[in-house]
Write a structure and sequence with these properties.
There is one protein chain. This protein has one domain. The chain is elongated. α1 runs antiparallel to α2 and α3 packs antiparallel against α4. It has 133 residues and is mainly alpha-helical.
Length: 133
Amino acid sequence: MTTPRRFDAALVVGGLLGFLGVATGAMGAHALKGRLDAQALDWWRTAAQYAQIHAVLMVAVALACPPPRSRWLRTALVSLGVGVVIFAGTLDAMALGAPRWFGAITPLGGTCLLVGWVALAIAGLRPPRSRGS
């Protein structure tokens, strides 16, 4: 008899971020085109692109490395999720008229994304036995 699979937060968050990336990308291409200036539309497109790329990465890691995950994989997944929310969220907010000082927060999201990639690389350097522990 097999044990039922546990709830996997990384897979859920990656799926939701992927959905939001596609939805906001479509919104920018259709509903917002002509309503935003060129710079705001560029921010919107960048946010959607980064959300989609990192959502796919999160889903791939979640599927390839089911729980329990190593500390480095957990760090990667959390950093990627937080990074997408901050990076894409602040760009989308500015595109929709939030104050320009939101742009000072955006690099924090980018830093989280970078930390996620580095943590993923470190997880890959660990011996296979320790990857899942």
